[in-house]
């Protein structure tokens, strides 16, 4: 691989992981692995500046903004910390601080790094007035109503405890291990999908529309950072938090002021083991220069303070026996090999299954059935096999041979060029693929038939009621009930809900039909560009490539999809049931070409419309909303409080800045 290819590959991988983490909330690798990939890319980009790209993941800051909560600007930006992973890094941090302070004595406050969601709480006159998530660091979601239900967050501070008139306190919201386990147990009983880890559960909970749900879940909060105009400038961080404890907050556990790097390393060593006894998830130690005056002297880089650093714990590892490799078939036919092992305790839970990802990884590991394997769990996500203890291998063990045929339908597996996964090509009659496509079709962002779920789909499929998505439309109450007359009410609900999908807009239909690689955004772009299924169906490769955001892989996949007779048949049937096969008059009418071919970045806080509304306006007028500023950006739609780094970049690249009024004028 040339350096350029490697850079591109890493960017693609990191973009994917960013999406999994920030959008889907379902990371597939640990933070440690993610950071390693990021460092590798940063190194390569530094070495080969000729391949610099302002859209590289190294240039990007994540965002957890959610449309259903009001976005509010942070008074002080919410920064993140630089990560370190070993003793050497810690020593280097210590030396940097030392030389930055030019020989002055200093103390380091060491404390737990909590693995939850950061939150910023504002108190005025001793009462909680606002709780805001980190968001993109500049603005976050107002989740005050939900936060008010968290019992460990004081709504009123303790009287006479000497709190300042107004201040902000930041910390982490967490779901304790026991609540997490109880919640997953309940969800398992209700056949709802389980949360992968307490962080995802906490994040899902905090963004819940109903604060009643939040109250029931038992969230907890630890506070670790105090700021405000009245926060003593001559004091120390440790002392401030101790005061906050008196005001009524739950603060970082085991905080310690260290006077030498040895003391810091001792603290890390101690908590690496002891943290397993804590009630909540931690993923490292945070080290902060204690004196606020010295903190100010050291200052900040563009992204993080120079006075603090996070040391991340190594992922936990266990060794156990591999008994069998089984294979799962996904909606797209992708085959996932799974290691079935003797149960072993790992990071507080019993593990007996782990992902093996694909055939290459199995080969690289040189896996044999019966091997003693190392299993790792980073950030409490799905565990994975990371190595084999070959010293324990006996000569009778058989090498794992990747299957050649589909375990569900027996079809010969295929491997597409450039892809790591094997696929079952039998998409028309392989059961998990059929069920998967139906599940995708009914999902919230597609046709949103919420009275159906994976279990009902499975049930209908097994009873021969449905074998593709169009069959949903001919279902009758009698079909669904069979001999069970108790089901009439719920059956009627299903029939009605399916009927209702004739109102689902065309762009979501394009997403729902399940063209490989066509996600929600691409479906929208395609719908706007071609305006009808008929036009999309007969589009040539060249025409498809003209659509912004559609590359060769997506275009070819669309062509392949419409070449399949079976798909055409299903779409024709859907059309005959009244499913939208074109943009509505209203959508077409509102559409203009005023921003055709333009890439627009949205930044800051707006007063006339929400960010999402502006995004929709850009798209409606033929433009594209992009995340980061590059030389290709046509203009920035800027509200109040546009981030300073964005502003600097815009000025450097000479990108035009347009305010709300100017923008509305542009498209009027
Ligand atoms: S201090 C300016 N202390 O880790 C410094 N952060 O990238 C502000 N975190 O987003 C952060 N435990 O959510 C600090 N004891 C702790 C922490 C902590 C967890 C999170 C925080 C931040 C991330 C660091």
Write a brief structural summary:
With 668 residues, this protein is α+β, with helices and mostly antiparallel strands. Helices cover 37% and strands 18% of the residues. Strand 13 (335-346) and strand 14 (349-355) form a beta hairpin.
**Number of separate domains:** 6
Number of helices: 25
Percent of sequence in beta strands:
15-25%
Quick one: CATH class of the largest domain?
Answer: Alpha Beta
CATH level-4 homologous superfamily of the largest domain: DNA ligase/mRNA capping enzyme
Instruction: Please give the share of residues in helix.
Output: 25-40%
What's the CATH architecture of the largest domain?
A: 2-Layer Sandwich
Instruction: Describe the main β-sheet briefly.
Output: 5 strands, mixed
CATH topology of the largest domain: D-amino Acid Aminotransferase, Chain A, domain 1
What is the 3D shape? globular
Describe the strand arrangement of the main beta sheet, using strand numbers.
Answer: 2-11-10-3-9
Low-confidence parts, pLDDT < 50 over ≥5 residues? 60-67
The molecules bound to the chains, other than polymers, are: 2-(butylsulfanyl)adenosine
- In quaternary terms, these chains amount to single chain
Cα end-to-end separation: 50 Å
Radius of gyration: 27 Å
Structural class estimated from helices and strands? alpha+beta
Q: List how many beta strands DSSP finds.
A: 20
């Amino acid at each position: 691989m040339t350096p350029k290819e490697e850079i591109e590959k890493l960017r693609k991988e990191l973009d994917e992981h960013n999406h999994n983490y920030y959008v889907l909330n379902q990371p597939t690798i640990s933070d440690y692995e993610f950071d390693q990939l990021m460092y590798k890319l940063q190194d390569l980009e530094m070495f080969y500046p000729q391949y610099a790209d302002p859209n590289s993941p190294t240039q990007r800051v994540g965002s957890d903004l959610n449309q259903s909560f009001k976005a509010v600007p942070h008074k002080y930006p919410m920064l993140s910390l630089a990560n370190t992973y070993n003793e050497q890094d810690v020593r280097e941090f210590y030396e940097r601080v030392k030389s930055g302070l030019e020989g002055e004595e200093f103390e380091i406050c060491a404390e737990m790094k909590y693995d939850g969601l950061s939150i910023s709480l504002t108190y005025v006159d001793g009462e909680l007035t606002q709780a805001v998530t980190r968001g993109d660091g500049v603005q976050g979601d107002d989740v005050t109503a939900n936060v008010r239900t968290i019992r460990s967050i004081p709504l009123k501070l303790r009287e006479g405890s000497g709190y300042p008139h107004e201040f902000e306190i930041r910390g982490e919201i967490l779901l304790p291990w026991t609540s997490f386990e109880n919640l997953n147990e309940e969800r398992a009983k209700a056949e709802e999908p389980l949360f992968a880890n307490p962080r995802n559960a906490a994040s899902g909970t905090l963004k819940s529309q109903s604060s009643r749900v939040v109250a029931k879940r038992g969230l907890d909060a630890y506070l670790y950072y105090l700021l405000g105009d009245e926060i003593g400038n001559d004091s120390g961080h440790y002392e401030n938090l101790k005061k906050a404890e008196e005001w009524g907050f739950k603060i970082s556990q085991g905080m310690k002021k260290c006077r030498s790097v040895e003391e810091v390393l001792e603290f890390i060593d101690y908590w690496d083991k002891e943290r397993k006894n804590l009630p909540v998830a931690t993923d490292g130690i945070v080290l902060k220069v204690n004196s606020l005056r010295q903190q100010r002297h050291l200052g900040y880089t563009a992204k993080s303070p120079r006075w603090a650093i996070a040391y991340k714990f190594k992922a936990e590892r266990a060794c156990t026996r591999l008994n069998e490799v089984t294979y799962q078939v996904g909606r797209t036919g992708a085959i996932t090999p799974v290691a079935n092992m003797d149960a072993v305790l790992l990071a507080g839970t019993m593990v007996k299954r782990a992902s093996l990802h694909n055939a290459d990884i199995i080969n690289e590991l040189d896996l044999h059935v019966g091997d003693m394997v190392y299993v790792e769990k980073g950030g409490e996500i799905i565990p994975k096999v990371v190595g084999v203890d070959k010293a324990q291998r006996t000569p009778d063990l058989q090498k794992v041979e990747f299957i050649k045929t589909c375990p569900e339908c027996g079809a010969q597996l295929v491997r597409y060029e450039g892809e790591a996964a094997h696929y079952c090509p039998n998409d028309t009659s392989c059961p998990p693929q059929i069920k998967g496509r139906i599940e995708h079709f009914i999902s919230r962002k597609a046709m949103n038939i919420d009275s159906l779920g994976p279990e009902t789909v499975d049930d209908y499929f097994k009873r021969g009621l449905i074998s593709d998505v169009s069959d949903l439309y001919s279902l009758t109450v009698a079909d669904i009930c069979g001999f069970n007359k108790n089901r009439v009410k719920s059956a009627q609900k299903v029939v009605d809900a399916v009927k209702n999908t004739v109102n689902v807009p065309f762009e979501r239909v394009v997403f729902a039909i399940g063209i490989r690689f066509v996600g929600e955004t691409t479906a929208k772009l395609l719908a706007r560009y071609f305006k009808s299924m008929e036009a999309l169906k007969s589009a040539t490769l060249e025409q498809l490539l003209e659509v912004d955001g559609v590359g060769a892989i997506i275009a070819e996949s669309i062509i392949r999809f419409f070449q399949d007779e079976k798909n055409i048949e299903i779409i024709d049937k859907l059309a005959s049931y009244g499913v939208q096969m074109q943009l509505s008059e209203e959508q077409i009418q509102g559409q203009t070409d005023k921003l055709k071919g333009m890439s627009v970045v949205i930044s800051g806080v707006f007063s006339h419309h929400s960010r999402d509304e502006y995004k929709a306006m850009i798209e409606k007028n033929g433009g594209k909303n992009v995340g980061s500023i590059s030389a290709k950006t046509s203009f920035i739609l800027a509200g109040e409080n546009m981030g300073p780094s964005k502003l600097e970049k815009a000025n450097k690249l000479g990108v035009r800045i347009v305010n709300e009024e100017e923008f509305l004028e542009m498209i009027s």
